[in-house]
Design brief:
It is a single chain. The protein is an alpha+beta fold. The chain has two domains: about 35 residues; about 270 residues, no CATH class. It contains nine helices and 15 strands. A hairpin with a 4-residue loop joins strand 10 and strand 11. Helix 1 crosses helix 2. The protein is globular, with a radius of gyration of 23 Å.
Length: about 325
């Protein structure tokens, strides 16, 4: 009698489980449900995660610093609302490699050497798709606010100051935090070097980056990075360069190379323990894991603002949570 009872319970449980599966699959979309609990169906995919890093505390200025505040142009809103973003906007896994978004048409726009380097960069990007791994490896959240068209900067001071540039050790990353589920989606990688000429990380003409001229004092604790812009700088001939951002194509872009900028001796002395960054900082953004209509190497990325404003998050390979 007891055996028959156990068999009956087992059969009932199986029937209920099957019925529940089809109920979820039809009305609640079982694929989305699985993603909500943090399990990607693609074994190579990576889910964005909320911060679980032990020392993490919300910033004293309030968590609103993590979100976009501003107006999104109607053209962009209508374009993104219409569903223009599809799987061509995201990388894909094939034959053991991660490939850049097909929307970039890289085979026709970039050299074979650049494409191979992009694939290597995507391995790094996939590792940092979980922000907790970035924090565990020494990256710190910039104490500044969400930067429109870029997101939340997370930087590694050691990489910034080592005077090396590599797609495997990006100096900074940018993320978009979802207001509802607190997950951080990786938006861009970024590179920094203290130099007066662009670092030729890629052969592509549009991979010129830009410069920041001036002195910045950096402090990093176990969670946040604080930057204080201290002063302008001068060249050896006495010409003063006020703190500014210089983009490719501006007259001053080429002038920087021959200006012989110097760091004033008293730089950051009033901030004990601060690291000095400058006087000429080359920087380049790199949207390799999500298509940027302004260009792969553009620092402005409008889709970032749209995602933040609408609390939308994607997995590394583009599954919408």
């Amino acid at each position: 009698m007891r055996l028959l009872t156990l068999i009956a319970i087992a059969i009932l449980a199986t029937v209920v489980s099957v019925e529940l599966y089809f109920l979820l699959a039809s009305s609640l979309k079982i694929r989305d449900t699985v993603f909500q609990v943090g399990v990607a169906l693609n074994p190579h995919d990576v889910m964005p995660q909320p911060i679980r890093f032990v020392p993490f505390r919300e910033p004293s200025v309030g968590e609103e610093m993590f979100y976009f505040k501003g107006h999104i142009p109607n053209r962009l809103r209508e374009e993104f609302d219409s569903g223009v973003v599809d799987d061509t906007y995201f990388p894909y896994y094939e034959n053991g490699e991660i490939h850049p978004p097909t929307k970039y048409d890289i085979e026709n726009n970039y050299s074979k050497e650049d494409v191979e380097k992009m694939k290597l960069a995507l391995k790094t990007a996939r590792r940092y798709a979980d922000i907790n791994k970035a924090l565990a490896e020494g990256y710190r959240i910039d104490s500044g606010t969400f930067v429109p068209g870029m997101g939340i900067h997370v930087a590694n001071v050691d990489y910034i100051l080592d005077d090396k540039v590599s797609v495997e050790k990006p100096e900074f990353l940018t993320y978009i935090r979802n207001r509802e589920n607190r997950r951080f989606q990786l938006a861009q990688m970024g590179f920094i070097a203290q130099r007066t000429t662009p670092f030729r990380l890629f052969e592509a003409k549009d991979a010129q980056g830009h410069f920041h001229i001036g002195i910045t004092c950096m402090f990093a604790n176990n969670m946040y990075l604080q930057r204080i812009v201290e002063k302008s700088t001068k060249s050896k001939d006495g010409k003063q360069f006020f703190y500014q951002s210089v983009s490719y194509g501006q007259d001053i872009f080429d002038e920087i190379e021959v200006s012989e900028l110097v760091i004033p001796e008293d730089s950051c002395k009033k901030y004990p323990g601060a690291k000095v960054l400058g006087p000429s900082i080359w920087m380049m953004h790199f949207a390799i894991n999500m298509y940027n209509e302004y260009g792969m190497f553009s620092d402005y990325f409008p889709y970032v603002d749209y995602l933040s404003a609408n609390a939308i998050t994607h997995s590394f390979f583009g599954e919408k949570l």
